[in-house]
Design brief:
globular; alpha/beta; Rossmann fold; binds NADP nicotinamide-adenine-dinucleotide phosphate; four-stranded parallel sheet; two-stranded parallel sheet; about 270 residues
Amino acid sequence: MLATFYHHPPKYKGPNWCELDLTAFQAVQKCLDAFRPDVIIHAAANSDLDECEKNPQAAEKINVVATKFLAQTAEAFGVRFIFVSSDMVFDGKTGFYSENDPVSPLAVYGKNKIDAEKSVHLSCKNHVIARTALIYGRPLGGGSSFSNWMEMRLRKNQTVPLYTDQFRTPIYVENLAEMLLELAQSDFVGTLHLGGANRIDRYNFGLQLCSLGGYNSRLLQKTSMHDFQPLAPRPADVSFSIDKAKSVLTTKMLSTEGGLLRMFENN
Ligand SMILES: NC(=O)c1ccc[n+]([C@@H]2O[C@H](COP(=O)([O-])OP(=O)(O)OC[C@H]3O[C@@H](n4cnc5c(N)ncnc54)[C@H](OP(=O)(O)O)[C@@H]3O)[C@@H](O)[C@H]2O)c1
């Protein structure tokens, strides 16, 4: 297995690591020509919503143009292409979105993901568009996550402001990895919503994390997403319907309780 990084060299062993800027297409082509993959899982992105809003051209380069190049290369090699997309393709007005619901992004990042999805669909026959939701878990090396940010603050006895009015179907990172690996070996083609088994707001997610991880829940502070004005607008409820994924995959989608339990057991 070959895995790539860009700015942050991984601190753990496992796959063969290769430093690669996915927007440097000659280098990408050279790497793929040498490695000849059977399947490409493309999870790299600029997923900082405010950064994408601030620098839309740079965001488009990695989020859209690089994705199109990789999808075209997968097609040229005749291999499977799994593209990790996002719940941010929806405006969050209704929630429980299925794969057939019309997309309507609020910000540049969501628009990028839709443009990338379209080019994957057009460029590579053997593709999966795996839209995923808020990811939680402990990073193996570098990086961060929503739950990681909370744990860092709780350990330092710092308060944790959490929205009570923003709903997601959060997914435990290992559970997501299992689904992506299953998809890599399956013959499913199309779009799939990979979310956790329950819809939850961020504050109640925080309560579960405190209860299961032994943290002080009095440090959690209820807030509203309407109290803040980030550069990129955030959708209120982009929870997924995961019925289609359940029918396609044998991997079971964990609830936030199940995912958090596994996270605390693992570490
Ligand atoms: N996190 C979430 O809650 C969430 C929710 C829905 C969908 N997603 C999607 O899930 C995927 C993973 O998200 P994440 O949260 O793990 O993102 P992340 O922590 O920001 O990681 C993004 C990765 O992309 C790599 N990357 C960025 N620009 C690159 C470039 N030009 N060339 C090569 N690699 C580049 C980065 O490598 P270096 O760090 O080495 O620079 C990093 O490993 C993304 O496609 C994201 O859109 C995430």
